[in-house]
Write a structure and sequence with these properties.
Blueprint (H helix, E strand, L loop, with lengths): L2 E2 L1 H8 L3 H7 L10 E3 L2 E5 H10 L11
Antiparallel strand pairs: 1-3, 2-3
Helix pairs in contact: 1-2
């Protein structure tokens, strides 16, 4: 299993770390699989699937 921390999530989604921090707190974002000393981590496959499901550009999407 590959994992992503917030910096990798931001890079994959093509957004800033600040924007990624908002996105990961949305109810439709995959839940983190664990919290380490570096922060929360996510299953990379789940993050990729989330990005593929999104119809709008994530950087411009308003949080819900």
């Amino acid at each position: 299993m590959r994992v992503m921390a917030l910096a990798e999530v931001a890079a994959h989604l093509g957004v800033s770390r600040q924007r990624a921090a908002i996105l990961v707190d949305r109810p439709d974002f995959p839940a983190p699989i664990d919290t380490l000393s570096v922060g929360r981590i996510w299953d990379a496959a789940e993050v990729r699937a989330y990005a593929a499901r999104r119809n709008r550009h994530l950087a411009d999407d308003e949080p819900t």
